[in-house]
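Data deposition worksheet. Section B asks for the primary sequence of the deposited chain exactly as it was used as input, without tags or linkers unless they were present during the calculation. Section C holds the resulting structure in token form. Section D is free text for depositor observations; keep each observation to a single sentence. Incomplete worksheets are returned to the depositor.
Section A, Depositor: J.P.
Section B:
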Amino acid sequence: MSRQFIVAVRSRREVRRGGALVFAAALAAISGTAGAETLNDALVKAYFVNPDINQQRAAVRAADEGVPKAVSGYLPQVSAQGSLGVQRFNSDLNPFNTTTNPRGVGVSVTETLWNGNRTQNGVRQAESTVFGAREQLRLTEETVLLNAATTYMDVMRDTAILSLNNSNVQVLQEQLRQTKDRFDVGEVTRTDVAQAEASLAAAQAGVLTAQSNLQASMANYRRYVGDEPKNLAPAGPVTKLLPKSQQDALSISQLEHPSVVGALHAVDAAQLAVKIAEGALYPTLGVTGSVTQNADVSNFPGTHAFVASVIGQLTVPIYQGGQEYASIRQAKEQLGQAELQADLQRSIVRQTVVAAWGANENAVGQVRAQKAQVAAAEVALAGTREEAKVGQRTTLDVLNAQQTLLNARVQLVTAQHDEVVDSYNVLAAVGRLSPETLGLKLVSYDPRTHFDQVKDKLFGVRTPDGR
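Section C:
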């Protein structure tokens, strides 16, 4: 039997005899050989329609706009002015009263030549923020793909368990019928019948619990994948995609995990925030050019005045109440916080890798052990039934053996589920759970496309998609 989430089903006669009914009976209820939806198909759906991913893509696009905002500090500020009014002039020294309409138009251009490198550092900070947002998007993609894979396997597991419980009810119904027949001919007592009835009632309750669990898993599947699970195909662990050793996994995670890389970009942004705050202590050099045309000036109708000027301005901060100094100290503390956060993320990722690696190795061992347990339980049940026919075993012994076999099969289903899910957990823990690594048939979302569209955009209020 392979590591895939499948096992063969025996005939109804073998079921009634307590033979091996394991997992393919469950799969028959939700999957077929033709047109089945694979786990990769589900992951492709989740990648495109999951709202968590799409909202984070929007967040990255919003972060992209921070770069042209910062670049605007290099560009001139242009404004136009216009004025129009009515002015009445009366004076004892002037026998004439005059009414004029002073008016004027003008254009001014202001350019900052140097501001303590605040613009330069602001652009670099905006770029670091964009890189950090991309890592957050990558982390969100990993989380969604992992959740989608988990819920896919949850549906497979819970469907298999429901099928096992349904088959167990059928077996116990047959057991109860046989026990009543034997009671009618005096081979067993009323106690044996009651024991069979109690076991059947417990099995029917187990079916209800399994149905409830399956409904919950299907709801989770819809949340992450976007539609109802239908015709799901078996899936296996991604063992070939995992690092060769735990040490390799740790080394990769410290370099590639989006939480670590994103935290390092946050450190870069915090360092630049310190430089921006320090830039407020440096002089600011700018130049302003203006052109103005006025009419009816100085209360003289019909007069015109044209004024053009170019003025350079140097501002040297001396003391502004200590605000700049507090801002610098604050930025330095925030830098220290970002550095500690980066260390924390490394530690968290390391712990996650160790835990995921250990869980994956345990799952592989559990599958082997549970297969052996199922095989032994099948032999034990068959032997108990034969011994019961000759009076060496009681009805309770048979029922206990049947329950032991059911539990072993459920545990094997769970172990096979865990083996697949834990392999995806390891891939996510090292930071490589991506469409490219999984070989998904899709065109990945490239955040650089939007960034290239807006980084040099100087005019316009419409987004690249037309909004």
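Section D:
The chain has one domain: 12-75+115-282+317-454.
The beta strands are 77-84, 87-91, 94-100, 103-114, 284-295, 304-315.
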